[in-house]
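Work Package 3 (structural annotation) set out to generate three-dimensional models for the target panel prioritized at the project kickoff. During this period the team completed the workflow that converts sequence records into discrete structure tokens, so that structures can be stored uniformly alongside our sequence database. As a representative example, we reproduce one entry of 155 residues exactly as it appears in the project archive.
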Amino acid sequence: MTGSELVNPTVLPLRPTVAFTLRPIGIVHLAPTRRGRVPKFFVPLRRAILEFFQPYVPGLAGLYEGVELWVITYHAPSGRMPTDSWQSMDGVPGVFATDTVQRPNPIEFLRARVIGIDREKGLLQVAGLDGEEGEAILDIRLATSPHHRLAIASE
């Protein structure tokens, strides 16, 4: 392969699409905010309520206020191959060196801090979430070192 074939995805032979089944575990509800004048490219980090569906509510056991989480969501604007302008050419960073919402796959990793928990209703109130109303939650994970991983949830 030549260098231009590596940079231009339209030249590469497309690989077959692999199908995955993803089951949302909940949904994002953004807290209402006051409209104000914000700079053009400023994305405010908002408060949100993460509503978990009933079979997944017991998985909230052990979470506490103040813990940092990765919230993994299905992000509809993603899932399309970026245009050539997002490829690394002429000093412009490639798509994987940016935080653009135009990504090859429709998933998003958002960081948030738990500020409230309603275990009976399966609700987590979080701050700092850069998400959108109605996004499906695919998973949440503690934002800790990967060295703290458990092989089984009951460990």
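DSSP finds one helix and six strands in the chain.
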